[in-house]
Design brief:
alpha+beta, two-stranded antiparallel sheet, two-stranded antiparallel ribbon, extended
């Protein structure tokens, strides 16, 4: 029996995403003053230049930062968590750090490297030992 797509979780998430406003809104309880401006579904910043602007404490979620260039910026405490990281490059001071991040995550989570298996035997081994990959902890924040 094929489930009704209108009742699926994905259909509900798509509906929820499409109902988000395309203008700034206030989110209570976030930010320094108890409120934070939220921009959702906007492309108004594409190609923009920010000079002496503060993004301190800002959170970017489900956002496209491809092609962004940052020069003379303070990145102390910058935290990046991207499932797409390994499909591209992240250059810091002229060095592509993606292979370094990949190697460190493989060291921290033995068996993780098996997710890139190219043969049926490798995929079989990844499925058998995949528990290590599936248990990678994630920190979730609402703001």
């Amino acid at each position: 029996m094929i489930p009704d797509p209108s009742s699926s979780l994905i259909a509900r998430l798509i509906l929820l995403r499409s109902s988000l406003p395309d203008f700034p809104t206030t989110v209570p309880g976030c930010g320094d003053d108890g409120a934070m401006t939220t921009y959702a579904g906007t492309n108004e910043f594409e190609g923009a230049t920010f000079v002496k602007a503060s993004f301190k404490g800002a959170t970017l979620r489900f956002s496209d930062l491809s092609g962004v260039t940052m020069r003379s910026v303070d990145v102390d405490g910058l935290d990046i968590d991207s499932h797409d990281l390994f499909f591209g490059s992240l250059v810091v001071n002229g060095v592509d750090v993606v292979p370094l991040v990949d190697a460190e995550l493989n060291r921290q989570f033995p068996g993780r490297e098996l997710q890139k298996a190219q043969t049926p035997e490798g995929l079989r081994e990844a499925l058998i030992t995949g528990g290590a990959v599936a248990q990678i902890p994630r920190s979730v924040s609402l703001c």
